[in-house]
């Protein structure tokens, strides 16, 4: 644990993932006396991030941009500028966020790469904690489906409408992807590792499929907590229970490495979800307590639901309160409880 200005120990929490769920947890953690590190996926190939990646071959910046804003102490007006997305009809700028362009420019300057660029930008944005891209080079997500076919590219995988059997990541130069040493050190020195919330196959697993990241998560003495999704996702986790989510994670890393899983058991009101706006969500994830226990993890079930804008989200305050309650307990504590 690190220490704060008056000598109190600050728990080290590493949050791994991507998408819109990660900033929710990071915003909640900021109100607590903890040392935060966010490890962010770099396998996105859709939207503004995908276009920038195709044009100048840099790590897709969208998820990194959102995490930087979540941890930034800049005035709100600067955050708003950084997040501004062009709505003009210009063929290039339309749909791009200013922050994405700044991250891409910094990573291209002096060939410094995305990792060093994000560290420099973190200082400029007065980041509270650390933001680490999972890899310093763009990665491609690959998937094999249960029908034996394979596809490359996150957006293509999600749109295929097939059941995913397994995923893995590759780099453009066919060199085995590795995370920077700072990422591995953060995981090994952490008191708690938090996975999610986020898309199982396209936000969480792409990080864990980087070999030294997956190995570190399995070897760390930190408690590994998985925040299970509330809704199933089209093209990814159709008909999945919460136990299925944990099983897939464990199968990909070859061991039962999840210590604790947080699952929402509060029902989503019928007809509340705007299915046109949130068209990737299908049904509420079914609760399978016995299946979760079979995966060797501690189960914490509660009302983690937040309803707003006719969408279904995790209640960041409630989830973070549970994470703080769990912090610092050794892995042996979980083994004793399961026996």
From TrEMBL:
It comes from the Bacteria. Keywords: Cytoplasm. InterPro entries: CofD, CofD-like_dom_sf, Gluconeogen_factor. It is found in: Cytoplasm. GO terms for molecular function: LPPG:FO 2-phospho-L-lactate transferase activity. One of its GO terms (cellular component) is cytoplasm. Gene3D superfamilies: CofD-like domains. Required for morphogenesis under gluconeogenic growth conditions. PANTHER family: GLUCONEOGENESIS FACTOR-RELATED, UNCHARACTERIZED PROTEIN YVCK-RELATED. This is Putative gluconeogenesis factor.
